Amino acid sequence: xxxxxxxxxxxxxxxxxxxxxxxxxxxxxxxxxxxxxxxxxxxxxxxxxxxxxxxxxxxxxxxxxxxxxxxxxxxxxxxxxxxxxxxxxxxxxxxxxxxxxxxxxxxxxxxxxxxxxxxxxxxxxxxxxxxxxxxxxxxxxxxxxxxxxxxxxxxxxxxxxxxxxxxxxxxxxxxxxxxxxxxxxxxxxxxxxxxxxxxxxxxxxxxxxxxxxxxxxxxxxxxxxxxxxxxxxxxxxxxxxxxxxxxxxxxxxxxxxxxxxxxxxxxxxxxxxxxxxxxxxxxxxxxxxxxxxxxxxxxxxxxxxxxxxxxxxxxxxxxxxxxxxxxxxxxxxxxxxxxxxxxxxxxxxxxxxxxxxxxxxxxxxxxxxxxxxxxxxxxxxxxxxxxxxxxxxxxxxxxxxxxxxxxxxxxxxxxxxxxxxxxxxxxxxxxxxxxxxxxxxxxxxxxxxxxxxxxxxxxxxxxxxxxxxxxxxxxxxxxxxxxxxxxxxxxxxxxxxxxxxxxxxxxxxxxxxxxxxxx
Length: 519
Prior knowledge:
With 519 residues, this protein is an alpha/beta fold. Among the domains are: 4-259, TIM Barrel; 406-447, no CATH class. It is 39% helix and 21% strand. The chain has helices at 23-36, 50-59, 86-93, 107-114, 118-134, 146-152, 154-166, 183-194, 212-221, 243-253, 267-278, 299-307, 334-339, 350-366, 374-385, 432-444, 496-518, and strands at residues 4-7, 40-44, 68-74, 98-104, 138-144, 171-176, 201-205, 226-229, 295-296, 325-326, 393-404, 407-418, 421-429, 455-464, 473-481, 486-493. An 8-stranded parallel beta barrel has the order 1-2-3-4-5-6-7-8, surrounded by 8 helices. Strand 2 (40-44), helix 2 (50-59) and strand 3 form a beta-alpha-beta unit. Helix 1 runs antiparallel to helix 11 (267-278) and helix 5 (118-134) runs parallel beside helix 7 (154-166). The protein is globular and about 80 Å long.
């Protein structure tokens, strides 16, 4: 059976503490989710903030193969007619085919939060959905706090979803908004609702009792076919249901189709990409996609797994793009990365594979992660297979940061050798990395004019082993783009400027090498 996957990472997920996405981040994540095969992508709440309004304007120009972009909002407010509610107008202006509307299904919220009568709340739901349907929108209704409401006043909770169905909603999504329900409760209630509602049912759970995934699976078992969640379980408080667990459970263990079968291998890649964009350190023990999900440390386990992996692994890690790790070998993260570069046919050169895997293992132990740094990885691969040509030599660089009056100024000097020519240039910038970028461009642009259309679009810093305080290792990931492509590069060092310089050099080299190949 096909299960619809509805991703709300860009809206509900971004409400998580320490989760922040720029507008460009949101666009990139949406494209990545579409590539993975997600059915619905909730882009945000137009009208609630300028960034979400800008997102829907930008996303109109993008073509998606698999996903439908969804705008999210509430029922009309109590003091507005539906035609004049500015938030409803913004929903229509987003021009999405689908709109998700949430409404109160718990009488406690109607009385204590909205402070209106129960009947008036039903009118909010009815009028909002009918209005959107008349304006040619397909409406998904999120019954907020449904399970708490049903357990306390089942008759009224049922009225809210019945009126949503009768008003033209295409999906009824039952929400465990406070995350306090238990799997057996979810299973029993969904089964009862399934008998009363004709249109497809959905489930939206939160993880406050550490049961969001289990509750989602229970809902599917009782007939829900529309699943809402976030990548990596991002979300407010303890987070939302984690799609990186739900999708493989449903698809591998229960035989449902969630995404195209061939895309499941990219699950780990997607998970780590979202962490990198959010600049959050991934928890190693995350099921299915975590670095430790299929890790084995010595003794009986390693011996057993070497004879038969089923002894200590519930699935083949390769199915979800992860890998088995024997910790004493300190080899990690290779298979997922290698899948991205099949065009090099590395499997035909086992000696190169061994050299490359050994190098990856060493670098990962130093703090490198290549999921969001394909540019750096490709340069490393080129060096390993003998397809790398040095473009220039770095004779040295210097960065000075000084305060001039009320202004802090950064100035960088670089000395580059291209062939027999030496370029010694200096440039100021908004910060030390921007100054280095400007100085490097000035030095090599006349030799490699293709860098003119390249620009840096993102710069992320992560502190590794923070317990070392100011001596901690720093990982820098730089994202660059031109008219056609976007790529990431990485640098790792105890010195943040050195780490930034490494990533910067790789970014320019990757651009030049790619341009020469396309000539």
